[in-house]
Structures
1.
Amino acid sequence: MSSNKDISPPKIIKDRGSIHPINNMKDSIMSLLVSFGFEIVDGPEVETEEFNFDMLNIKKTHPARQMHDTFYVEKKSNLLRTHTSPVQIRGMLEKKPPLAFISGGKVYRKDDDATHLPMFHQVEGIFIDENVSFAQLKDLIYKIIYSLFGDDVELRFRPSYFPFTEPSAEVDILSKEGKWLEILGCGLVNPIVLENCNIDSDNYSGLAFGLGIERIAMLKHGVKDIREFYKSNLDFLSQFK
Amino acid sequence: MKIAYDHLVDRIKEKPTIEEVSDNLLQLGHEHEVEGNVFNMEFTPNRGDCLSINGLLRDLSVFYTCDINQKIYSEELNSLQIDFKNLTPDICPQISFLKLEIDKIPDKYNGYLNDYFLDLGVNKNNFFTDISNYISYETGQPTHCYDADKMNGRLVLQELDINQEFETLLNKKINLKNKNSVFLLDDKVINLAGVIGGKSTSCSSETKTVLVECAFFKPEAIIGKSVKYDIQSEASHKFERFVDPACHDRVIRRFINIVSEHANIKDISAISYEFEQNKVIKIPVNVNKINQIIGINISEEQYLNYLSKLGFLINNDLILVPSYRSDIETQNDLAEEVARIIGYDNISKNDLNIPKGKISNNYAIENKLRYFLLDEGFYEVINAPFVSGSIDNSIKVDNPLDSNKTYLRTNITDSLLDNLLFNERRQKDSIKLFEISDIYTSKNNEIIKTRKIAIIASGRVGHNHEDFSKKINQKHLTEIFQKALPNENFDFQILSRDSLDTKIKNEIVCCELDIDNFSPEVLNYKQTVKSPDNYNQYSPISDLPYSIRDLSFSIKDFSKRESLEDYILGFKDEFLKKVYIFDYFYNEKNSEIKIGFRFVFQSPSSTITEREVNDIIGVIINHTQKIKGISIPGLN
């Protein structure tokens, strides 16, 4: 004797799609930072040299401004932003401190190989208030890294150089294989940048940080070749449901 | 830049191990790889002062007792008679020349000079050029050696708008174009200033009389030149990153000293030109500010002690920045020096509490659209914006990566079509994609940004027994989208395949809409899919072809159906990519269920063979044949 269940059609298993792993990673990080108190701001990908370089204390002589590193458009009247930092500049010009912004999105550099792409994604954050210190920046970075990689991850801070922060640091985490991997750049906002944005650097200081989304997504998902993210291959995309 | 451990440690009293030096270099912010006994350094672009043995020792002096003052020639120098004119003092505010004659060219090098070539595997050229290269390694100051016998005439340094061929001392012919700072000898270019010298005046193994040029070029005059002319130039690498403008006398005297240790000097004369006085940067002593910036509490004595170790002078309440530290101008710069010495990892963290900010709702509509599309089986893609074709309002890239990427795209659909064809070529029979992106155009010199969503689909509606035989078409998509989001007009269009390089006939349906045109009603959509809350580990994908097999079963004993489904849908094999029920029919009259399974096979390493597929299918058939009441029609 057969039951109705035995003869009923099989349950329809609908194919579900997936958010692109880079957007998913970006959204996760931005949600984390919003939970820390940051507000999301937006800015254009086609930027001016003024916002992308000058306001950020990136001097005319800086190698990043060369034609071999930056995509210029419309007879050099504009460029494709090389980082999301110009959004912070726009935010600082619009609002008065204390302020805490994050921005995320596509950025462009003139690279194309197995580890670099001409388009990639960043999330950046900035916090401006009275007496913001490097020690507080460290506290924030620890919170971010622990949230992303777990409380038991080992990390280190290394001095580095970004024209828009001083002191500047790069942060590495120790991989399971025992290799140090660079995860983010950060620092205290260079007072020159604050002054460029009409913020009195005698009264205010700030911290800033930036993460490369592809790097973190590669580590989290175990993707070895950055180009896989942008082939739009369904075999690849269907793994991130 | 490669720096040998032995060359450093020879000048460090404490004789630290290579591991200790490596750790301290890292603490100071000098990234490197240790390759045998050599540090392969990667300095940040603001630390041009470290591009030498002396530079690195100056930084390591915070940990060790370092000997930076090598022996120099200390006698008075005769004034060099030279017919030289600097027409670009703004670019080259300091320049010195040394003329030196020896009686015999040495046939071997002593101690440290020999070690330099041996330990770093550097090729030797000729006596004077070899010393010049070593001097650059030791002091960080590039010098250029002319064969003095070839230097008869008027020497002029000038920035010229020039168009002429120039042969470098490495026998490379380059076409100088546009503005270049050059040295001219009787109006002929003999040296691309700060980058590379010319062949016509270069030293050879016969040269006994040398004219050494020791200059300070401002970085902006040099930057980009080596890339422009595709020249590997250590000199330009250093000038671009700033060299010490106040080191000329010491460098020239060191040059003479090294020569004197290898040959008898018959004649020496030198001259220095200073067209602009070096400015000493002075920063007020303010330890409270330093403590506030870093978030520490050190005493003023400790603070000044740190700076003294790095070569800073303290004069009353002012800190005088050494001439080689072009990167130090502000209190924040000094704070970084202190933090480096303490060690970033040794600075304790202080609690940071950020007041809650405003929650932005800018992306609410597009996020809701995203999840609706996920529910309907669409995959999100991201494409780079560079395309070959243009329309009237396209934005042109001045320096594209290649000629196929000259413009910014003005629509997303073309990118999605490429993605769809890419997947069709990989035997995907149900393709549903979408992308959300800003699109940039130009109108009357204004950049216009539009946020858009584009959707494309083709092939089967789905991989289940109900949707398998249905094809995606305009009507189908319109109905689904209308049902879920009744207030929106997606306006699906059919894309012609006429000009596409494909034999597949499935209808391609697409739409592209401004996000701003969606109504807030979208937010009422009740999504079923959630974003993944864990990070799936990716399995490498294969570009090799699929092999597809279908198996149809006849079920007479309906109670066995569930176990058949469980077995087949749960079957695992490394070559089995996917299995699903593509057909189901209950024949009440015959009291029979017919159920069809589709198996998709792919090998990660080579094209999967018939035999490999048959072996796997054989295992499945063998198992299912043991289930009573289930048969495979046509098998026996």
2.
Amino acid sequence: MMDALIFVLAGAFATATPLLLAALGELVVEKSGVLNLSVEGMMALSAAIAFMVTLQTGSHLVGFVAGGLSGALLATVFAVLVLGFMANQVAAGLAVGILGLGLSGLLGRSFEGMTLPGLGKIALPGLSDIPVLGRILFTQDVVVYAAIAATALVAWFLYRTKAGLTLRVIGENPNTAHALGMRPVGVRFLAILFGGVMAGFAGAYASTVLTPLWSQDMIAGRGWIAVALVVFGTWRPGRVAVGAYLFGAVSLLGLALQAMGIGIPAQIMTCLPYVLTIVVLVAISADKVRVRLNAPAALGESYRPAS
Amino acid sequence: MLMASGSTPVPGVPSASLLRLENISKNYGSLVANDKVNIDIRPGEIHAVLGENGAGKSTLMKMIFGVTQPNAGTIYWKGQPTEITSPARARALGIGMVFQHFSLFETITVAENISFTVPGDIRELSQRIRAASEAFGLAVEPDALVYKLSVGERQRVELVRCLLQEPSLLILDEPTSVLTPQAVEKLFVTLRMLSDRGIAILYISHKLEEIRALCHSATILRHGQVTGQVDPREETSHSLAKMMVGRDIPRSAHAEARPDGKVALRVSGLSTRERDPHAVNLQAVNLEVRHGEILGIAGVSGNGQQALSRYLSGEETLPVARRGEIEILGDAVGHLGPAERRRQGLSFIPEERLGRGAAPGLSLTDNMLLTAHRLGMVSRGFIRKRVRDDHAERCIREMDVRCGGSGANASSLSGGNLQKFIVGREMMLRPKVMVVAQPTWGIDIGAAAMVRQKLIALRDEGVSILLISEELEELFEISDRMAVMFEGRMSQPVRTRATTPERIGQMMVGLFEASDEMAAEAAQ
């Protein structure tokens, strides 16, 4: 029983990491006022490329770099559409997302069913010896730690730096920001690029670390979960992280219960993480004032620089 | 610390000009926004730019502030020909601007907002903000989140932001449109103080009395051209208005209403709980509009007027048990929707002309159909096009709506013309009770005068009119009695002819005792 619980909680961090990475990227994009719905596609494409590169080079690091770059590449296509041609953000995001999914399937066909070695767990010296907690929190792979650090970094950037303040106000009102001498298009481009890189890392983690075995439909909706986490987490990095870890824990809970032979229909267990995450995050976001303060007011609106 | 750099004015001795515009022209396609405009401003001068909406005031200011560039002409800054290529350049030169629609971000603090244009550490900046707000009598709290501030407070933030950049020229775009009379007085004190320190002020407005009270000189624009450059202190409001409009504007003179005492619209004890946490809740609002009178509701916007108009129009309904809180002609209607209330004889002219008063993407004929369908325009579920078109044509003719025919989209009309159309449409319905919100907001003087005349004509026919307005002058011009809304509460009504703008101004900041005293006086 205890072992099962430790398994669930320890695994939750790894399961949640791709969600968290992608959601942090999307959070920064949305804070700048851009809604990028191609997260699923960016994750899928970079998962395929990262898998391929890691297979060839044997290096997870090189795989992650390739994944990040391919996410950035797809994000650039999206950025050109919405910032350059003022395309509708929802339509452009869906189109680029489908492109990413298609490319992923195409590239991945040749290594269907192949496997990779995983990534070793790092037991933090000292901390990992703490009973129970040590095995849950402090015996994880490096990316899990990095994702936690990234959460703190994104929060620090958004709320403690001038650049973060600039990004947030561009998401509130790009016209006013421009009138004050800021450059909304440039800032939004950088934000979209960051979102692409983060989605790329998320895809790379999913295909080379979390389940290092290639199969089509590798990402399986995780990009969409990431987008939802941003909204339900009211655009706050900390709450988004809570949502991601909760989702991870409840997904694994189902597996653990099944392994223990508790007779709950699999369908219910499969939908439980979605339901529970939504319920918890809706409760968090019930405070309308908080939502209004954190939601980017210009989200999804094209910005045309005044001539 | 805030002295303008360069020359300071010496009384009686003409000093060198600070900003001079020479033959400035700007056109957007075939539309000429500014045509060979010349203006000369000296340090310390308060210079009014006066004109109707669309006269080219805003375009002119945008060119001075570097938002857009002129097609022809030269701008001289301190005697030198200067190209002002961007707002940043304008600020670097020493030009500050307070916009009519504020350029503040709502979700961050005052100090953070100011940090975008005034460099420096936030904590040090906060101290400078406090110092400046004390020096100029502009109460501003640097750590406050902007969304919590009233419009008056936001304007002070904008002013402080400009002043911290130590400008030698300050541009103010319709600064008093959102202020109470008392706040206007305070603003003027500050502006005169700035002027004494040598800061020149460009004051854009269409309020003639204010310009006469404040400004040293005035340039009047009409259709993009300068039609007069005068000393406003030596002019009358009437002569200024004539230069602005190009013809005489009759005041809506009218006899006092003689209501027969019967109440047509009654609100008793209406309290609400708004869904939006920042909206103002109505608190036990009482009011009565009698046959053949105009009851004016004054107040700074955001004190519950929106909620009141929504509950009166039927866009927002009450539970059946509370339906009696709103009565039209003696019938409880609180639970009824807009269409049913209209059948009872109510007509409603909302604040937003495009979107609530008219559908922007529809033609005028289709917009006619929206509320006037019961004038025989629909038969067995089918539209009778002839009847509809005839009504639309008649409305356009009678109200002198300037448009590209009855097939023109509502969004293609100017605000004034669309409002005339909407008022005309509602008049055709021969309502018994009319609720009108901000009927002349943002429309030109000519159209505004016509709308007011029509409202008085309706009143004289016995229609009961509730007029919600932020324009005190308008309320004093046409309403018979006035009440004031403040933070969701409604004052006792007072007779317009027995009160003054000063007393209404006190009520607008919540000092309702002023009205109670008057009600008591009236009762004696």
3.
Amino acid sequence: MPLKLLNNVIFQSIFLMSLLIVVGIFIPNWLVFVITKAIAYGLVGLGIITLMRGGLVSFGQGFVFGIGGYTAGLLGTQAGLTDAMLLLFISFLFTGFIGLIIAPLLARYRDIFFAMLSLAFSMVLYGILIKIDAIGGSDGFVLPESTYFGISPSPEYADYILYVVSILMTGVVSILLRYYYNSTPGLIALAVRENELRVEYLGSSAFNVTVLNFTIAAGLGGMGGALNGIALGHIDPEFTYWTTSGEFVFISILAGYLSVPAVFLAALFLELVRSFSGRYFPDTWQLILGVFLILSIIFIPSGIGSFFKQFFDKFKNK
Amino acid sequence: MSKNINLLKAEGINKCFGAVVAAKDINMTIQKGERVSLIGSNGAGKTTFMNMVTGYLKPDSGNIYLKNENITFLNPRTITQKGISRSFQIPQIFEPMSTWENILIALGTSQKNHSYFKNARSKENADYINEILSRFSLHEFAHRQVSELPGGVRKLLDIAMALVRKPDILLLDEPTSGVGAEEKYPLMDNIAKALSVENLTVIFVEHDMDIVQNYSERVIAFYQGEIIADGKCDKVLKDENVQEFVTGKTPKRAK
């Protein structure tokens, strides 16, 4: 019975969420902020690994990251909506909807054409955003302070409360995604990755699988963008820039598509390298990331998620 | 009992690839429960015909009907959903997965109203997969990665996956090609045993005339895109044109 419980996705997630919420009380504020940002980036990475399960990689998730961030920002500044949970949820839905609109076009392409077309969308959005002065142009704009159920937390607790909210919402999303991955459509996505022709000859649509996965990835990217914007208190076109999209790809390659927690670990790693190299080795963080990317592709081509999977598989077989 | 129901009908099918005639005025009717083999030398048009029936290729002219419904211009997915499944000359299986997972995916694709939150590895699905594995004697390979399996087993798995959907017609493209001589009969016995459970219509492309003679009731012979003989196995294999152009045996010509 205890073994069965430990194998339960909901139990694992609740345990991990509780642990992180408790740990958050004892760690310094800067680390709380770094983890919150890692969760934001991890959400986008989670979208990319959802696509990777279907054999695709998007080089342009900055597109949905930016839309999510701007959605939260504009709702805050223009509509006076400041509830963080509501902003995250609306950004998820709205960006998912945008994803659903463009997915049928993207789903017609594969491999590098899919990747570059997604990148093209993010470049177009970047170009538009820097030209619109009404929303700050290249400088972007500041988001209003977030509230939670109508309550505005005092500044010393604001980061921690956002951290808790992001853990809870990400936890729910991760549980739902784990269920989706293990469901029949989730498995068909893996089959599309391996042999699209056979999937069609078995009576399923590879196109529909890709549309669904891109829509999910878009929603997650939007939620990540909104969280990042709320955490920073600022949004600018950099969210959609191609180097930002590259960071999401880095997270996904480092994590691999075999494990959900691995994505957040990879995102945390990225944020820590960014923070420490910025402080101790200025202007070298791309160098450090590059070296890690080379090492991870050579030595762990399936990503750190493969370790997680091996561990849990051994655990299940006991 | 259930024969004499026209299941598949091809009417005036023509198909050319540039100057090469792959199908020339193909007309045929396949009835429910028939076991039909398509024979012919390489390039005779057997696989082209199969590809047109399954929607991979579209004929230049003519129509194909399944249960009186025109399926000529439907895509492979829709045709599969309507009741025609196929296996491939080179097995099209999901290499990094196990035999069990391959059947699970085939089963998943055949189910309607998927739940996005229900575990695909349910007991109900597991029971059905185990039944399929038993029918095809694949149990011992259930949890082995399919890239490690021998050729005959891969062929069986490919056919088992096509059968999961419970089609009306099963098309087998050279089920014994690439399989060692000593493996051919056990493989075909296995396939015949597995298919005998349902009154399934089976059309298979085959080059081995012993296999054709032993496992089909009706033979359709192709030569340069045309049907040159169609009928009972013994009759077709003794046909002079078939002996000259297909089997390679020199016919005894009347002086």
4.
Amino acid sequence: MKKSLTKLMILLAVLPMLVTACQPKSSETKQPVQNENSTTKVEEVKECKYKIGYVSDVGKINDQSFNQASWTGVEESAKLLGLGKDCYSFIETTDSADYEINIRSFVDEGYNIIVTSGFAMGAITRQIASENPEVFFIGVGQEQVNENFEPDPYPNVVGLNFREDFGGFLVGALAGLMTETNVVGGVFGCQFIPPVARYEVGYYNGVKFVNPDAKVINVYHPGSIDVCFSDSTFGSETAKALISEGVDVLYGAGGLTANGALITACNQGAYVLGTDMDQFVTLPEVKDCILSSALKDIEEGVVGVIGTISDGTFGGGDVYAPSSLAPFHNLDGAIPQDAKVLLEEIAEKLYSGEINPCTPFEGSNPNTFCVPIK
Amino acid sequence: MDNQLNKLNPIKIIYISVIVPILAIFTALIISSVVIILSGSNPLIAYSALAEGAFGNLNNWIETILKTTPLIIGGLGVALAFRGGLFNIGVEGQIFVGSIATVIIGTTLKAPAIIHIPLTLLAGVLAGAVWAAIPGYLKARFGAHEVITTIMTNYIATRIITWSIGVNGPLRKTTSFVPETNSLLDTARLPLMISDTRLHIGIVIALILAIVVYILLFRTTLGIEIRTVGLNINAAKYCGIKVNRNIVLIMAISGGLAGLAGAIQVMGLSPYNFTAGFNVGYGFDSLAVAVLGNINPIGVVFSAFLFGAMDAGARLMQLRAKVPVDMITILQGLILMFVAANQIIRGIYRIQIQDKKADKVNLSQGWGGGSK
């Protein structure tokens, strides 16, 4: 027993040396990170022009979706600003009760740019921002409104939002133009997530705009936040059911749930439409039947807003990035020329405000999350 | 198991219940550090950040305590059911149901705090107890295995709650974009132990409960009945113990504890409501905590503290060392594995125990021990 214990002790003693020897960089920077007195903090800031922290919503930073796009944006920004790898970091939230403490950890560690992702963290991000006016906050998917939903910008917080209803409307119009059975469908993540609801409303209205007689069957995942974006089986089964109802164009918005639907629909010969990223690229399984995607470049958006901090134009308040249509790729030839012209016209009218893509349905609750047209 | 332990001398008891877990933690840390190195980070930075995140200053201590509280209570629930030969996988769902009942009473009832707080806690307890009594009844009446039925009741609980706080749900705060309920009235919130911090009195309740459960199990007639049912159901019947009644009762107490864990989370943590993603995972961690704590109420306190500290410290570990939070899960899993299969640890460190009976630290008893 003694012998093996000593062996282990030696191993434990040698291990750190090995580790530090292999990573000279981190051993240099270890000292300032570990001491928290004020003098070393000054050094730290000198080393890092900015320290960027990212707090994920309940989820992972490699979810191939919302969180990943935001975190990649942070990494990109750090590269553009020439920050070392100790100047930016992340915390993955595991319990929504921890939002506050996770954000505060970055404040306590002297981070001066903090990116939080997901609308659920909106209120707490604003509260902490008001207590720390010297720290910049970027809330992805967080509208800067007070408790009564009136615009209430803070100078050190930018809410990075997207007009998902634009993208939804455009893919809806495309679906309405391409359907032969006059039945189109959609598979969506959680209904209570505003961007998802905006995609859905936009999609519905887009189909009806070009093709008032078409039937639209939209299905939301009924589950809670921890499954509604990751349930590809549900997506797949729903897609089968929709196709048996005559759907020949299927739109999917909702992470892996939607991806499951798109792959199944594609295998059964329907056209599909993707979301957030150009899914021709991110979901190669559907590259031969994907007409287009409703694009929302979160990564680019995060990089852009962090850029405004470094060039001094950071203004606070809401930023609404448009969401647009991805290229048609392989199916470019299948889409009639006049349809393409019409889509361009619609896009212009959307951006100019002539078309409101997000008119709430009659009798629906206010949570269709439409952005008021200015 | 305790009877077997009691036959050993105190030093050997310490060996099994203290030395083995400590060596398990030690070994798990070493194995995990290899994983951390492979993932390109420095385990020294990671572990020092982990320790600092858990104990570095008052606020970190408070976070550790806050994470520990629901794990103690949930762990007690699991341990108690375990002693009765029942494997209550349904703690997660019972926590949810308890939370929701808490929200209903805490947001609607108008009463002074001295009445409102106990009633709100009681709502959580009762909801959890009733929810857990259902699988208990199904087992007592029809012999349906509680592992299966509690897994199912978890699903049902999650879905009911998602619906109730979802779009147009009855508990949805109407003026919110977020799926959440209204906040509890001021009179239903747990008082703080230190003002201007997050530290509420939940931990006191948890520690008192640990003692209460200990006394219940080992110093009362009901405790003897519960343990007899757990050890040998036929012997229990032969002794004239009403086994079916006991099964329902054990599940109800276990679920009541789980429901209380949910109630304390809702009543103690700002913004004092139930949100999507709230309280996720405590139920399943409670299972691990109970096993690691040797299904002993006092052991549960220590293992909950260990898990709580790791959960709280994980924040700083991610921030400083960029080690994903999953590393903590790996670490916890390894510790659990070494404790459950403690022959591995005893093999590595050549710990010998003469009394062969002590080898039967039978943690998987719940699977077959209670079945008919």
